[in-house]
Write a structure and sequence with these properties.
single chain; 427 residues; mainly alpha; Growth Hormone, Chain: A; disordered N terminus
Length: 427
Amino acid sequence: MDTHSKRSVPIAWPAFLQRNADSPLQHVTLRLFLLEGLFSGASMMCMETFLPLFALAMGAGAGDIGMMSAISHILGPATYLVGGYLAERTARHKQLYLVAEGLVGRGFLLLYPLVPIFFEGRVAVFILIGLHVVRMTFFRLGGPAQMAVTGHVVPGPLRGRFMSARSLASVVGELGFQPLVGGVIALYLFPRGYQLGFLLIWFVGLIGAAAFARMPVATQPVAAMTRSSRPFREMGQDIFRDRQLLAFLGIVLAWGLGEQSVRSFYSVHMVRNLGLDAGAIGLLAAVASLASLVGLPTIGYLSDRYGNRSTLLATGATLALTQLLWLSARNAWQLVPAYLLNGLAHRAFQVAMVNLLLAISRPERYARYSALHQAAATTTSVIGPLLGAYLFERIGFASNVTLAAAAGILAMLIAWRSLHEHAPAPA
């Protein structure tokens, strides 16, 4: 098929699938994968929004919320590595993802509504924390397998537009579904509102899992790592054997450390130092979400036309320099440009990172490289907030955004000097 004809469609919505898919079967597969992103993304984002509120309603304190996140993140790197090993061991990526995340992980959502029925007080809070940690463990076990499926079913020339469309679908699902769940909770209050809300979240996630289950995905050959008696040691050796992977992980660590050191403190700064209320913060968040609806289709087209590396450099540099706008902002209006640029570039940056990971790895290593990527990213989500809290309290918010900008520029320098958009030759 003529690759240039695929790149001639400057849109990132499902219409381009019919024009560019290699076959009707591939067209159906990609549409189902897009639907999975719509419903699964909406379900996941609702969980991140309403689970802490549910815990607070049961009597949890700020320390309990922090502990719930910390324990989950500390276990994250090891869980992703195990998930990568299992994906290569079985080579049944679709089935592993459906069992780990679709069946078991989402099944735990049905247990959340039962907690306030059978438990109360501190016991209920600790039970909820335990359920969350176990649920996230299964979600992460299925993560590398899902990335492997992505690499196998999404053709390289379409990845920019398709992954942008999938991310866009997730934003649309989030914007449409979160107000519904929030309205149910506000109407019925605690505990019934949250119980009904979690059932809705489970049902929407189930629709996403059903779409994924219907995707025709072939079982892949078992990767060479499964013949090793020390698979995790071999994973570590891969990092230094493949300079592309080493550079990519350097980008993940530098970028993640900077982003995580400031991410949790934007709202604190706006409330404590700028005097903004929840309404103003919500409007700024809406600006970012609306900007992403505009930016993703355009960036997806540009990624397919000019390459994911170019997209990564452009969006990454934009995001890093955007951090510096916080230094001069004194009111909500002065923050609008920062939120607008962040909305245009942030999700596009994430799409470019995923596509580059697939581009630098051989098909039999999709799951392994994804596991290493997610393990590195989760490590920064443990260290970054601790470093950010120290800087915020000892020096001030300016040090957080300065570190984030510097780390972002460092990550882009690594990408510019060391990262190239091609996979290594088979060993």
